[in-house]
Amino acid sequence: MPRLFTGLEIPADVGQSLAMLRGGLPGARWIDPENYHLTLRFIGDIDDMMAREIAYVLGQVRRAAFELRLNELSAFGGNRPRALIASAAPQQAVMELQAEHERLLQRVGLEPEGRKYTPHVTLARLRDTSSREVAEYLSARGGFRSAPFKISRFVLFSSRNSVGGGPYVIEAAYPLEQGPDKRAPAFDGQAPALAKS
What we know:
The protein is α+β, with helices and mostly antiparallel strands.
């Protein structure tokens, strides 16, 4: 059974600038730069038939390309931090794209996502890291801001059930519209073939 999620890729140059932030935080398991991504909707472990249906329904998304920026570091977990993240700058386009994924995936039978959506890139998973250690790390590096980068497609990723996630495989890619005179190719109605794992 594939474990799937939809997301946005992080360009190599932005990934390199994020990778420069690695180190100096006890208990951090750093994500490999090639696995940086911004999740839109976690899907989970599903059977092949549902995977094909999801791949098909995602082809119905028609949205314009947009720019995104990562604009600060923070952590999830409050007093018991569990992840170090780079948050995306508030951007209506990414929120609308995520909301459309949520609607489409509920329509094919998935349960609603229980948490409020916060667009981010996970940099490290934390274990036995104190909130004081995270605060010290963030005070030294928290002013991070990436250059803006263009989002010209979203993808359907698969992952193995492993500690820390990854490696992630792109199962299907869905282009976003490039403007009035350079529209993305129309979806042909065929579900993309999912890679064999």
